[in-house]
Fold each of these.
Amino acid sequence: MAVDLAPSPALADLARRTATFIREVVIPVEERHRGVVRSEDVRRHLQQAAKQAGIFAPHVAREYGGLGLDMLGRAAVFEEAGYSLLGPLALNIAAPDEGNMHLLEAVATGEQKERYLRPLAAGEVRSCFAMTEPAPGAGSDPGALTTCATRVDGGWRIDGRKWFITGADGAGFAICMARTSGQQGEAGGATMFLVDAGNPGMKTVRHIDTLDESLYGGHVELAFDNCVVGEDAVLGQVDQGFRHAQVRLGPARMTHCMRWLGIARRAQDIAVARAAERRLFGSRLGELGMVQQMIADNEIDIAASRGLILRACWELDRKESASQSTAIAKTFCAEAIWRVVDRAVQICGALGISGDVLLSRYLREVRPFRIYDGPSETHRWAIARRVMRRHDAGAAQ
């Protein structure tokens, strides 16, 4: 079946306007703050500017103030937004809010959408997704979930510990995954709960010091201790949390890839500009064979990453499982984007590791992507298992 990847005129125009907005409005702010912003004033300023430019919340349904793009449409716009570390924040498509909006649109009740999705889509509040736990709890293996939710009069009591909860600092609410049946290690029995920030049973334990710093709201360890919520806090169906989470995980992995691909392009542009102007050994740096190889390899990694993203998004838009294509794309992109930024640093030499350009910041930001959303090793294991199952199924026929 033919796959037409050419954007419509309207989508191409939106991508162009996003690219212009990032260069003219966002990058000056990024450079002033060295890529790391913790100010609500700055966040609100950037988001208001994006609203005025008509590019805000492109992924959200028009009913909730967005532009209603499908996954292929998001690929074009999110990559342009990701050209700056602050671009996703400005367009309200940064993790974890973007993935949470997608989940709420798909799973929440009408009342929950009004209470949580609408203000989140408008940038009035932020959110977090409380899934990962300290060892031996849930991480790459969600079935290791230890946080429990127990029925009480009028609702549920949540108890457990979460860590590496991105964006939790200042979030208006959390989507918390807790076990409501079964035992640790079992694939089912989890439920998602909406927990408001003011709940006295949800407390910040600490801010985790990490290699990356640009994700707004940081990475936080949370304690759920006698955290009581009502029946209306259940997101989706009881005991169906892992199934509902799949609605979020595949698309969220792809949107991560889209955003970081923008940074890979930015790093390549910085390196190429340096190679064009810097003269060594009687010629421009970009005329030396080893530098040309790095420039070429960067172009190959960028193009291959984009192709894998588009293929996975095409499958997602067709409502296919896309488990294999999203795992392949996530694994390749996480490693390819790291290679691109690392080569860009090498091409720029001393300038690359200095604070005069943001390449060293980009290097610190993209390295954790090989761990976030499932480490490359876990995805490779899953990819290989699917291949073996396909072989076994064919052999049995």
Amino acid sequence: MTDSNSPADLPDGVRQALDITKRGCAELLVEADWIAKLTRSARTGQPLRIKLGLDPTAPDIHIGHTVVLNKLRQLQDLGHTVIFLIGDFTSRIGDPSGRNATRPPLTLEQIKTNAETYYAQASLVLDPQKTEIRYNSEWSEPLGADGMIRLAAKYTLARLLERDDFTKRFKEGVPIAMHELLYPLMQGYDSVALKSDLELGGTDQKFNLLVGRELQREYGQEPQCILTMPLLEGLDGVEKMSKSKGNYIGIQEPPATMFAKLLSISDTLMWRYFELLSFRPMSEIAALKAEVQAGRNPKDAKVMLAREIVTRFHSAVAADAAEADFALRASGGIPDDIPELRLSLPEGGLALPQALKQAGLVPSTAEGVRMIEQRGVRIDGTVADDRTLKLAAGTVVLQVGKRKFARVTLG
């Protein structure tokens, strides 16, 4: 590319677009190329083509997944074309990125079901009217054996083995199936087929994104730029957000649950969430951070963040209710909307630890005993610290911790 503008010399619109692109990103490759693309787009009025490819390996997404979607929406709002690419073909191969073993491919039915659910949830972030939905089977299946061989001829085995997970598995003697080597090639070919100007992905996808850049060059296209976004830490602030680790916030969780989880993050992690999840200008976030450092209660900032996220995935009314619910729980009050159930009453009464387990408030009676001993259990708002207590006939509200409630009728 020939444009050589430096950030200091850029027109205001291009500089703003560059700032929005780089906000919270892990890496932008190659920045000079992206500046040139933005400058050309501003001059010609031709929107850039921005691609995100996703293999629908699971039907549900959490807010960690929305870090990349947020970036897409920001670029979409600048007027560029967003391509939401569903890897219905590559899902059948299975991407081993970040894994040390082969990932099982999905069935066509699993792919279809997951893709529909995934896009419906992604549309809570993206503007569906301005999103181009594509499936890579459109161009991957017509390739056939001849096309696949021609594609494979454009990349070397040595280059493929530079990928970290392949290198580790090769050194450790862990099998690498031949079809796995095709995955980065097929993902790269997606960029050729779509003529993408920019491809987004997590930091664990950097190698695959670079393959796309090189293949575009091989096919005589202008190479795409690459924008990698960091993997969001979960509620614990240590591990990346994951449903399997239990440190996640699902975007379809109830508003009150989502709100309470966001209020539970540390004061330090809060700013990371602001940068990657909030749509507030960075100048506004910086001012808020300065206020907190000057003595303002960090909880005020967390409430602002929680309200923004809950409003995005539910509504402003839901955010109001979630905030009120959180305040009620924090003051020891009992929310109105809690699960109600009926339990059978054995002769002599139902032991409290057993009642907690049957009500779904603890996973086991042993955990129930532990919570009672730690004074984490309440009956009708009063702490219950007697592990031998037996409940009699009637209706009571059982509470474990600050968030778990159940209205139980025994009889």
